[in-house]
Amino acid sequence: MKLLVDIGNTHIVTTLSENDELLYHFRVPSTLNLTEDLYSFYLESFLRLHNLSLTHIKRIILCSVVPALHKIILRFSQKYSIDLFDANLATNLSFELPYALAERGNDRVAVIEGVIGYYNHPSFIAIDFGTATTIEVVINQKYMGGNIIAGYFTTYNAITGKAALLDSFEIIHTDKVYGISLQEQLSCGILHGYIGQLTYLIDKVLEDFPNIPIIVTGGVAALLTPYLGNRWTEDKYLLEKGLLRLEKNSSRSL
Predict the structure, then answer these.
(1) Is the pTM above the cut of 0.85?
(2) Angle ∠(193,199,204) on CA atoms, nearest 5
(3) What's the CATH number for 101-244?
(4) What class has domain 2-88?
(5) What is Dmax (Cα atoms) for the chain?
(6) Mean pLDDT by 10-residue block, N- to C-terminus, for the chain (254 residues)?
(7) Do 2-88 and 101-244 show the same overall fold?
(8) According to the 3-state scheme, what is the secondary structure of 112-141?
(9) Are 65 and 103 within 8 A, CB to CB?
(10) Exposed / middle / buried, residue 1 (Cβ in 10 Å: 0-12, 13-18, 19+)
């Protein structure tokens, strides 16, 4: 059994996998107070829910954009003698990447690998909604470039955190782009302003590369895709699928 660990800026998402099947998932906050022992406590509690233990874990596949927490999982694997594959060291990629591996995020590469491996698309746009939303453009399995914008809830937090008269509020999901109450107006601005920003960027890409498919993933993908039309395909576990592919391809190159 393999343990996929995706460390993002907001959450650490852990997934159990066996025979390339994604089985169970749990997430904890990406707190810098995390230690290898605390992660072990979370993990063992989760494993017991499924009648499993640490002895069932034969390999960790690690993807991280937070260096301090990356080190915690490395120490965890060493302390409990579990083999670890670091996606930072992935080789034998399925697409042409025209710059040094150190200059990109391994989570972004995993998302691209997920599309190529599980959708068999040589050309596509991949979008990952996270703390930052990343947009990747791949044509004939060559990385053409990307775009990074603030995440959906990052935008929300920026407004409520910086404006003295605005408290936290629940976003109302509506087809209208205007409202009466302050909550309605803020909701319309955040929701439809974000969708407008996103669709503008995608439409500009499609001017250069018409009719390529769009695959989306990440925490708010399910929330936003109903507003984006049927040309968008959502895959909640695209990154995890890509990690399995990265690990498999790298093993073949040894």
Answers:
(1) yes
(2) 130
(3) 3.30.420.40
(4) alpha beta
(5) 62
(6) 94 95 94 92 95 96 93 96 90 81 74 95 95 94 93 84 64 85 84 93 96 93 85 93 93 58
(7) yes
(8) HHHHHHHHCCCCEEEEEECCEEEEEEEECC
(9) no
(10) middle
